[in-house]
Fold this protein.
Amino acid sequence: MSERVAVRKTYKLFVGGKFPRSESGRSYLVQDSNVSLASRKDARDAVVAARAAVKGWAGATAYNRGQILYRVAEMLEGRREQFVALGVPGDEVDAATDRWVWYAGWSDKLPQVYGGANPVAGPYFNLSAPEPTGVVAVVAPEAPALLGLVSVIAPAIVTGNTVVVAASPAAPLAAVTLAEVLATSDLPGGVVNILTGRLSETVPTLAAHMDVNAVDLTGVTDPELAADLEVKAAENLKRVLRPVPPDHDWSADPGLRRMTALLETKTVWHPKGV
Amino acid sequence: MFEYAPAPESRSVVDLKPSYGLFIDGRFVDPTDGGSFKSINPASEEVLAEIAEGGPQDVDRAVRAARKAYEKVWGPMAGRDRAKYLFRIARIIQERSRELAVLESLDNGKPIRESRDVDLPLVAAHFFYYAGWADKLPHAGFGSNPQPLGVAAQVIPWNFPLLMLAWKIAPALAAGNTVVLKPAETTPLTALLFAEICQQADLPAGVVNIVTGAGETGRALVEHEGVDKVAFTGSTDVGRAIARAVAGSRKKLTLELGGKAANIVFDDAPVDQAVEGIVNGIFFNQGHVCCAGSRLLVQESVAEQVLESLKRRMALLRLGDPLDKNTDIGAINSAEQLARIRELTEAGAAEGAQQWSPPCELPERGFWFAPTIFTGVTQAHRIARDEIFGPVLSVLTFRTPAEAVEKANNTPYGLSAGIWSDKGSRILWMADRLRAGVVWANTFNKFDPTSPFGGYKESGYGREGGRHGLEAYLNV
């Protein structure tokens, strides 16, 4: 008996709930695999998919979004060994799973913590509530490959945003594998879109895109590129999350900031009377 | 229509100096490298005072004074003591409110009824509100020990000069920051009187610095290396430029920019109330309001009736002397703004919309524009897309709630919106779908220090007012 020949996996993009190759037909060799090399057109297509998903996802109940994020944690737990095989330490997979659980619980609590009634000086009902800003372009941190990625995606989507994520160019396999987790978690297509390839190709397109509402520059390590992306983002006044220092502790309590930076506050007034 | 006898508010309560310096480090000083400019009364074109124009060195002096005050005095001071200074300021504003209101109307052109009954009460309330936060920051929901940012550069517009100053300075100081504020070029006077109030309150030197000037002074301030925070209220174009200028820096930025709000009237709305709301929405403060209800979306079945009532009501608006207590519509703030309003209304007529104004006599001197509505407006018209910032209303119609939502959201702006309907479930359904930071249902242009204010999309980011307003001035 000869030894069984393994079935290898093709690593592709994740756009609109599907796994397409780059429209450019290109790939690059990284982590011993051929990975899709996304083009500017792929970035624009991903924005279209993300925008199309906003209405349903932002309009879903907070309970429903929380259920789905918790389902992501369940699916990730079951694929622990798969990530370990890619070189992600087991405790990092556990921390990433726990982070999904943590953020899942925020879906129906953040509006209570971050919004509320305002005691205006007059006979008016006045209520402030957070709403998702819309489509968020995210530059994932280079490392840790899985925990860093989950720590930027989960806070963006739990409140109803949709995202286009530029995965770490040097370690994209965890991102594509996470896409497989997301695809089997009842997350509607287009809520999370993941692009692999060079940041210099996809990210400037996303930062300048007029149908993107916010950019999270967390994973940008070059200060000049970060400043240039922020300048591009100013064109339609995108909300900007600036890069984090390289020594950022991803295992620490994330706090609310990553969620609140991608929210709008809407305040509704109505007179009281009979 | 009733005849009205003139009912002018007395100017004698205001003691104008011939010239004003910059307020830096607790004292009024002459500019070192700047010039001067004149502030005029837009209702008469009379020169009110000569104002110092701060140059880059003056800005630098002010930022250094603010830094020193932050490090030596205001930063280390206990929150309860910062609170007491803010309470003092609030009280002095109340005590001197008539003087401030008259000065505001003189410099800005807004009716005394508005500066007296809207601006000044809100200014005092804002300082009272944030004074109370100064010793309660650990309970504000930003962690157990939120820290101030340092020196805040604040640039404000001319439409609500003192109120915008209050919106900027009160939360900044409560959170423990010190400030350098640049008032608008055309309306510096109440900010300079506020500087005197800071002296009267014995506020430590350097905590508040006021550097007057035009765009270049503002640019020098925003771009200064020693600034940790930039807060701007004004046009979206300048907001964009500021966002570019602070890119790649440590400066935290909040922007409150333009708007093109939809005011949506459904067929079940009480027409008289809705018409009052439409008038308040667009003609309040001559329409110099970023959240003005400048696009009226009226349901087709009642459009004729609403327009008829609206025109009848507009014919009763009294335009004229801002200091007359019966005046509804004052002067346009500047010749430049008047030119912009004229240019856009001419574009409206040229693009095919129908222009209407009530019979309205305009004073000979000063800058004036009659209340105006355009009907037959399409979404492609410039008057339906561009912020006019004047007493000009564009009227569009819709048939279904879904169409109203589409049209209301069809703008790069997202500051405010109005809904007029008797049906609660419809109001809440609409409020959920309108992409705007403030939604007024069966009311319009209401403000309160406890109520967060700010925009979606290109109307800017960050909120002013309420607990949310503290976030802009804390390291969270």
Notes: The first helix of chain A runs from residue 40 to 59. The mean pLDDT of chain A is 97. The radius of gyration of chain A is 19 Å.
